[in-house]
Specification:
alpha+beta, 32 helices, elongated, 11-stranded mixed β-sheet
C-alpha cells in the first residue's frame, strides 16, 4: 500500500514554479485549447501544425495534462454579470439569482489543460551520496530560494514558451492550483472533489505541508474478504483520513498498441476525444513526452540497421520465419529513416499516456473502464490497465514526479508530425467568455454553459448580430424572444417585427413594463420619413420608400421630379415637412401652367396611396420615436412578397400595390431602427426580424442589414434575423458579416444541407451531420409527434470566433420570463391560454 505524501514530489512552490525533493524545478501553465469541434479539415490542419510546433519545442520530461473539473457556479454567475450594472438592471439581477439553482442542478464541468516543463535544477551542488544520506525530504531549503534564482527559472521558461509561440496562450498557474490538483487526484470521481482555482489568489507560495495525506490501496485489498489470496483487480482505492466514508476508486489505462496501418487525420487520430461524456466518473489524462532531434534519430537508425544486418547474416542459412521478420523490420526501418531524411525539421517523440478514471465505487469505475476499452476498439487502439503498476502510473500525472520504470515500459515512439495528429490541446467550446447563459454545450459532453455576450461584443471589437434558421416549430421564435428579453433586462432596447397572426410578440411584450405595440394596419403612430428623420436625411429616406412604392425610377421623369422636391433646398423652398405636404405641393405644381407633365404623373401615383396609407399620410398621428425599452410592430395584415417575387425581376415588376406598400412599410421600420439604434446614445439596441428575406433581398433592407452588421459594434447595436432557408434569405451582409449563427431542427434534406453549409460545415468531410440535424436534433417522437421537454432547444451554433459546435438552448431561468416567451395566445383578441414549452434544465 502506497501513501500519498510519499508520492507527492513538491518541496516548495513559488507562484507557478515548483521545487521538488529531487531538485527538479518545473514551471506549470494553463493552456488555452484551440477550437476544434465541427470545423473544416483545413482549420483542423492548422491546429495540427500548432501542435507540431509545440512538441518540437518542448524539453524532454514535459508533462501535458487534461483535467476534468467541476465548474464553480459562482464563477459562471460572475461571467454572466460582467459589464452589467446590476443596480440599474434589477430584472437581469433576478435572472442571475434564478440561474444559480439551475446551474447547480446541471453540474457543468470543463476540462482544464496544463503544461508542466522542466526549467532547471535546485541545489545542483549537492552530491548524490549527500542526498542519499540527508534523505529526499531535506534536499530543498525553501527559504534559500532567492529572487535571482526565481528570475533565472522564469527566464528559462519564457525562452521555451517563445519557441512554442502564442497559439496556446500559456498563462502561469496560481500556487493554489498545485494543492487543488493533489486534492483532485485523491478524490477523483468521488464526493468532495474541490472546485479548481483558475485565477491568481492570496496563496502565491506554498510548501509541502499544504498537501494532505492518503492511502492508495492497489487492488482495493482492504475490500476483499480473502486475507491470503490478494486481489488482482486493476483498481486503486484512495482513502483520505478526513473522508474515510467516501473513498475514490480509480483505474489507470494506457495504450498498449496503436493501429498498425497508422491513424488518419483528421477524424481517426484524436484519440483523447473519446474520453468525454462518461457520466458518473471523472476522467483525466496525462502525457509525458521526450524528444530527440532528427540527426540523432538518423544515427540511431544506422546502428539499428547494422544490427539487423548482422542478425540476417547469422540466420542466412536458417529455415524459419525469422528471416522474413528481419526483412520486414529492415523495410520499416528504411521507411522510418527516409521520413526523417526528407523532413529535416522533424523530431522523434517518446510519449507515455495515462488515462485516469475515478468513481465512487469499484463497479462504477470498472464499468467506465470497459466502456472506454470498447470505444477505443473502434479506433483500433488497444487499451490496458496493467496490474502492479497502477500506483506508478497514477503518480505520472503529478507535476514534478520523478521518472519511474513504468513510464518507459508503456512508452510509444512516433515522429513529431504523427504525434501532432493527436491534437491533445483542443476544445469543443462555443460561445463567448462572458455574458448571459443561453444554453449548454452538448458536443463536449461536459454541459458547459454557453455564454453569449451580445452586449459585450462591441467592447471586444466583435459583431453582436446573429441569424437563426430552422423549420417551423423548431425554436427560432423562442430563441429570438430569449435574446430580446435578455437585451431588455440588461438595460438595452429592442424592436421586433411581429408577422404572426396570433400576435405572439404582442403577447410577449405584455410581460415587459412600458412596452409599445404598433399595428401598421390600424396605426397609432406615423412612419412618415419626412417627420421621423432629421431634414438632412429625411428626403433621401422618403425617396427610398416612395419611389419603389410608386414604381418609379429615380431617373425617370416623375422620379426626378420627386427627387428635386425632396432635396434640402426643395423642401425648404416649398415648405415640405411631411408626405402629405409633398402630395399637396405636387398637385399645386401640376395645376400651374407651363409645368411639365411629370408632375401630373407623380400626382396621380401619389393619389392612389394617400387615402390607403394613413400610417404615411395622416398628419394627426404622432411620428414614431424609438425610445421605449421594447417596441413591437405588428405587420400581420400587410401583404408582403415572397422571396421568389423579390428575387425574380419579372415577378417583382408585376407586384401589386398592396405588396409594394407592405414592403415599403417593412423597410421603413428597419430604417427607423437603424436611425435610432445606430447612434451613440449609450443604450444597446436590437432589431429583430423573423422574415429575413425582407431585410436581405431588397435594396433598402440589405443596406439596413449591412449597416447593423458592419457598424453595430461601434454603436452598441445588433440585428437578429430568422429564416427557413439561409441559401436564399441569408445573402450578402447576412451571409458574410453576421458571425453568430444558429441552426435548429430542419427535416427537409435540401434545407438542412443549405443550413449546415451556411453554418460553415463541409458535408463532404462530415456527411453524418446531415442526419444528426434532420433526425437527432429535437426529434418529434411518440403518437403525437411531440418533442420531449428534455430534447427541446437542441441546435448547432457557430460563434464569433468561427467555432462550430452543438448545444441546447435553455431559455430564461426566471419562471415569469420563461412563461412569457414560451406561451402563445390561442387567437387574436380571444382568450389567451399559455401553452408551456419550457425547456428542461437538462
Amino acid at each position: 500500500m502506497a501513501f500519498g505524501r510519499d508520492l507527492q514530489p513538491t518541496a516548495a512552490i513559488r507562484g507557478n514554479l515548483q521545487f521538488t525533493h529531487s531538485g527538479l524545478v518545473t514551471a506549470t501553465y494553463f493552456i488555452n485549447p484551440l477550437g476544434y469541434g465541427l470545423r473544416k479539415a483545413g482549420d483542423k490542419h492548422d491546429v495540427k501544425m500548432a501542435h507540431h510546433a509545440l512538441i518540437n519545442s518542448l524539453p524532454s520530461g514535459s508533462l501535458l495534462l487534461g483535467i476534468q473539473a467541476r465548474l464553480n457556479t459562482i464563477d459562471v454567475l460572475t461571467k454572466m454579470v460582467e459589464g452589467v450594472d446590476l443596480d440599474e438592471c434589477e430584472d437581469y439581477a433576478d435572472e442571475v439569482v434564478a440561474s444559480y439553482e439551475r446551474v447547480r442542478a446541471i453540474s457543468p464541468q470543463t476540462r482544464i489543460y496544463l503544461l508542466t516543463i522542466p526549467v532547471g535544477t535546485a541545489n545542483s551542488g549537492i552530491s548524490a551520496l549527500s542526498r542519499m544520506w540527508r534523505g529526499s525530504t531535506t534536499t530543498i531549503d525553501a527559504t534559500a530560494i532567492s529572487r535571482a534564482d526565481l528570475d533565472a527559472y522564469d527566464e528559462k521558461a519564457n525562452e521555451i514558451l517563445s519557441r512554442i509561440g502564442g497559439d496556446f496562450d500559456p498563462v502561469p498557474v496560481p500556487a493554489a492550483l498545485f494543492q487543488w490538483l493533489w486534492e483532485h487526484y485523491l478524490s477523483r470521481g468521488a464526493a468532495g472533489d474541490p472546485v479548481a482555482p483558475t485565477r491568481v489568489g492570496a496563496l502565491d507560495d506554498a510548501t509541502a505541508a499544504v498537501f494532505s495525506s492518503a492511502a492508495l490501496d492497489e487492488g482495493a485489498q482492504a475490500d476483499s474478504n480473502r486475507r491470503v489470496r490478494p486481489s488482482f483487480v486493476p483498481v486503486i482505492k484512495v482513502v483520505q483520513p478526513d473522508y474515510e466514508y467516501r473513498p475514490s476508486y480509480q483505474a489507470m489505462l494506457t495504450p498498449h498498441s496503436f493501429p498498425y496501418a497508422g491513424m488518419r487525420f483528421p477524424g481517426g487520430s484524436e484519440f483523447l476525444n473519446v474520453l468525454e461524456g462518461l457520466g458518473e466518473v471523472t476522467v483525466d489524462w496525462g502525457m509525458r513526452v521526450s524528444t530527440k532531434p532528427a540527426d540523432q534519430v538518423l544515427k540511431n537508425n544506422e546502428l539499428s540497421l547494422r544490427r539487423l544486418g548482422e542478425q540476417m547474416d547469422q540466420r542466412d542459412q536458417e529455415v524459419s520465419f525469422a528471416q522474413n521478420t528481419l526483412t520486414s523490420k529492415a523495410q520499416m526501418l528504411g521507411e522510418y529513416n527516409q521520413h526523417f531524411e526528407v523532413n529535416g525539421g522533424e523530431s522523434e517523440v517518446s510519449f507515455t499516456t495515462v488515462i485516469a478514471i475515478g468513481g465512487p465505487s469499484r463497479d462504477v469505475t470498472m464499468d467506465a473502464v470497459n466502456t472506454l476499452k470498447r470505444r477505443y476498439k473502434r479506433f483500433q487502439v488497444e487499451m490496458t490497465a496493467p496490474l502492479g503498476t497502477q500506483v506508478d502510473l497514477w503518480s505520472m500525472l503529478i507535476p514534478g514526479s520523478p521518472q519511474r520504470r513504468a513510464y518507459d515500459d508503456f512508452a510509444h515512439i512516433v515522429p513529431s508530425d504523427m504525434w501532432a495528429g493527436f491534437v491533445p490541446f483542443i476544445t469543443s467550446q462555443i460561445g463567448d467568455d462572458s455574458g448571459p447563459v443561453i444554453g449548454v454545450n452538448l458536443l463536449s459532453g461536459q454541459y458547459e454553459p454557453i455564454h453569449f455576450g451580445i452586449m459585450e461584443a462591441a467592447l471586444h471589437d466583435l459583431s453582436a448580430s446573429f441569424a437563426v434558421t430552422g423549420e417551423l416549430g423548431s425554436g427560432k421564435s423562442y430563441f429570438l424572444k430569449l435574446m430580446a428579453v435578455l437585451v431588455h433586462d440588461m438595460g438595452g432596447q429592442f424592436l421586433a417585427i411581429d408577422r404572426s397572426q396570433v400576435g405572439e410578440w404582442e403577447h410577449f411584450a405584455a410581460a415587459i413594463d412600458n412596452a409599445v405595440v404598433i399595428d401598421l394596419a390600424n396605426p397609432t403612430v406615423s412612419l412618415d420619413p419626412l417627420r421621423m428623420f432629421e431634414p438632412r436625411v429625411a428626403g433621401e429616406r422618403a425617396l427610398d420608400s416612395i419611389l419603389p412604392l410608386l414604381d418609379l425610377s429615380p431617373t425617370s421623369g416623375a422620379g426626378a421630379a420627386a427627387s428635386n422636391l425632396l432635396t434640402i433646398r426643395g423642401m425648404a423652398e416649398h415648405g415640405i415637412r411631411s408626405l402629405l405636404d409633398l402630395f399637396h405641393v405636387v398637385r399645386r405644381l401640376r395645376d400651374q401652367p407651363g409645368n411639365p407633365e411629370e408632375y401630373a404623373d407623380l400626382a396621380a401615383r401619389l393619389g392612389t396611396v394617400v387615402e390607403r396609407v394613413p400610417v404615411l399620410f395622416d398628419p394627426a398621428l404622432k411620428p414614431l420615436r424609438l425610445n421605449a425599452a421594447a417596441t413591437v410592430v405588428r405587420s400581420h395584415q400587410l401583404a408582403l412578397p415572397t422571396a421568389e417575387e423579390l428575387t425574380t425581376p419579372h415577378l417583382y415588376n408585376r407586384l401589386p400595390l398592396t405588396k409594394r406598400l407592405g414592403t415599403a412599410l417593412y423597410e421603413l421600420v428597419g430604417v427607423a431602427a437603424r436611425e435610432a439604434f445606430l447612434t451613440d446614445n449609450g443604450r444597446f439596441g436590437l432589431l429583430v426580424g423573423d422574415e429575413a428575406h425582407h431585410f436581405t433581398q431588397t435594396q433598402v433592407g440589405s443596406a439596413v442589414t449591412s449597416d447593423f452588421s458592419r457598424d453595430g459594434r461601434k454603436h452598441l447595436a445588433a440585428i437578429g434575423l430568422a429564416s427557413h432557408d439561409p441559401a436564399t434569405d441569408f445573402q450578402g451582409a447576412a451571409h458574410n458579416l453576421i458571425p453568430n449563427r444558429f441552426v435548429f431542427r430542419q427535416r427537409d434534406e435540401t434545407l438542412a444541407r443549405n443550413s449546415l453549409e451556411w453554418l460553415g460545415v463541409d458535408l463532404e468531410e462530415a456527411p453524418f451531420l446531415l442526419q444528426i440535424l434532420r433526425e437527432e436534433t429535437s426529434p418529434p417522437v411518440g403518437a403525437g409527434r411531440q418533442v420531449p421537454e428534455e430534447r427541446r432547444g437542441e441546435m448547432f451554433m457557430r460563434d464569433a470566433l468561427n467555432r462550430i459546435g452543438r448545444g441546447k438552448v435553455l431559455g430564461p431561468a426566471r419562471i415569469d420570463r420563461a412563461a412569457a416567451i414560451t406561451s402563445t395566445p390561442s387567437a387574436p383578441g380571444g382568450t389567451r391560454t399559455a401553452i408551456s414549452e419550457r425547456q428542461a434544465v437538462r
